[in-house]
Amino acid sequence: KAGVTQTPRYLIKTRGQQVTLSCSPISGHRSVSWYQQTPGQGLQFLFEYFSETQRNKGNFPGRFSGRQFSNSRSEMNVSTLELGDSALYLCASSLAGGSRKLFFGSGTQLSVL
Amino acid sequence: AQTVTQSQPEMSVQEAETVTLSCTYDTSESDYYLFWYKQPPSRQMILVIRQEAYKQQNATENRFSVNFQKAAKSFSLKISDSQLGDAAMYFCARQGGSEKLVFGKGTKLTVNP
User: Are B66 and A63 in contact (CB under 8 A)?
Assistant: First the structure.
C-alpha cells in the first residue's frame, strides 16, 4: 500500500507570491491534516479535512487555506507569502474514527526569499 | 494552553545500550491518545508507539516501550538495545477529541558506535 505522497518535495518562492502544496493520502484514509514545522516554533497544526469538510483549524492567519477533494486528496494554499512562512509542511492521513493513528508524508520544504 | 513538554533537547546512547526519553503533558480531557514519533534526516515522521490513556498497561513495540503515568501526566519512551538506525529526532505528541496532534519540541537522539 502506498504511503502519504506530498508534492513537490522542495519549493522556492519570493515574498508576495502564492503557493499550492499537494497531498495524496493512503488509500482508504479519509482524514487529511496539515502541519507546519519550523526550528523556532516546532510542529504546529494547520487544519484537518474529512470528507471534503474542514473539521478543525489551527491558529494561523487567513492566508493559509486548504481544501479536500472527493478522492480525499488535499491541497494547501498560502497566499501573499512572507519570509516567516519558510518551513517544512507535513501532511498526515488517518482513517479517522478508527485507530486514530496518523501517517505522515515526507513533507514539502518551502523557502521564501 | 494544553502543552507537551520534552525537557531533553539532546540525548546520546551507546549502541546496544538503553535510553529513556522524557515527556510530560497537560490536558483537561479524560480520553486521549499519546504518541512517540521518530523523524530521521529524511524528514518523514514515523510512528513509533501509541498509548491509549484509558489503558493502564504500558504499550510496547519490539525494542520500544513506554512508561505511562497518567496521574503524573508523564509518558516516557524507552529504547532497548539501541541501534545506529535509531538516531533521529523523537517527538512526543498528544491527541484529544479530534485528529489534531499537539507535539513537543523534540529530542535529538544520537547513537554512538
Answer: no
